[in-house]
Write a structure and sequence with these properties.
single chain; globular; about 525 residues
Amino acid sequence: MFHRTEQRKASSMVDWAEECDVLVVGSGAGGCCGAYTAAREGLSVTLVEASEYYGGTTSYSGGGGVWFPTNAVLKRAGDDDTIEDALEYYHAVVGDRTPRELQDAYVRGGAPLIDYLEIDADLEFVPYPWPDYFGKAPKARAEGRHIVPKPLAIADDPELNESIRGPLGRERNGDALPDMLIGGRALVGRFLIALRKFPNVQLHRNTPLEELVVEDGVVVGAIVSNGGERRAIRARKGVVLAAGGFDQNDEMRGKYGVPGAARDSMGPWSNLGKAHQAGIAVGADVDLMGEAWWSPGLTHPDGRSAFALCFTAGIFVDQDGNRFTNEYAPYDRLGREIIDRMNAGTMTLPFWMIYDDSNGEVPPVGATNVPFSKTEEYVEKGLWKSADTLAGLAEQIGVPAAALEATVARFNEFAAKGVDDDFGRGDEPYDLAFTGGGSALVPVEKGPFHAAQFGISDLGTKGGLKTDTVGRVLDTAGKPIAGLYAAGNTMAAPSGTVYPGGGNPIGASALFAHLAVKDAATR
């Protein structure tokens, strides 16, 4: 951290190009919610987005949901959950890895935030049943605690549609933009529409954060860049860092020991960790820096392994031809199982999904996030293999034939009796979420047989600046750094090393940015 004299000199020599009450860095759920809260509270707010599009990682989310127990949207749909039950569940799965008061702030804060947002007609949400990710934990709910933004038709607003990041098919495959905002794009779009009502809002794209400006121990603004020029923005009440993770920075991933690679992360290219670095430079403490929100990654012809879920058949096998996990488990749990085995030296990448020809050559993956390319492209790249026999398939993917045959035979026995004795597939509500009411144990028996290559992917890093219960960034002595706040993947996640349920990342991002601005308003 700067010495006090250096801080004073740094600020006194700054030529401020712009001034506001609150400066928000990032435009995902946290950045948009923070900016909206500031504007609605009568504060002037400037939001800076590093990339060419608004939305950050949030805009890639297929659902754009938030995990907010007992919120009004769920209540209107007949939900009978209690905050006590939600706290018991959350505490049980997160444990003591993060401060209990931070966990409580998240679990208790979501419902009041929805009450606040729903006052605005532009911000609409609907229930979306999605099982909690630890179905055997105390007070887990099979229907979940999850709501999503209502889809938004914007055919008459092409400029807004174009300005929001995603979908992934557009950015990676050149697909046409849909004229309906759904999921994370709908959440970002709704906030942007709501922000239009306020005169005290400035939004800047292509404007990354470079450093924070500190005076006498107080963060008073930031230096950003735009068009190759550095500009200083003064923030009278506070700076909120909601700029995503550092998932696209391989150097930082290596430094902090984050498994995987930037190319296989689902974060946008702009998630370089500049907000993390700026916070650390002014004395912020960090936590969970080796962590991310994990998932298996279907490998595409461009060589990138992308987040995939909604498996409706198939099994995973390792380099020895052995099945190693419950394939229908929640994606973060699957990813962590793979990483644990890699760290133990018992597994290498890639691994393979083995499936039969019941539905043809395309893998039984209902949600690939990055849309499938043409089948022949996967085949030409050696990513999808086919053979009339399991022994022939084993030869193609380089695993022992006897092991693969035995693995499939054993799984088919489980399918016949309806019980997975090895990994418990089908034992939790999430395992059954994509089965259409059928069994989670679909046999692999109809030739020809197929294999699809998988790697490890993530939805962004989750390590970041330590904060208190209102998002104030803490220094290495545990004291708040005046004027500095963090939310989302720029803050150390309240959920620690687990992923309690769908909507936790976006929910924490929106909530702590909201709480941060409410606190800043009192300064």
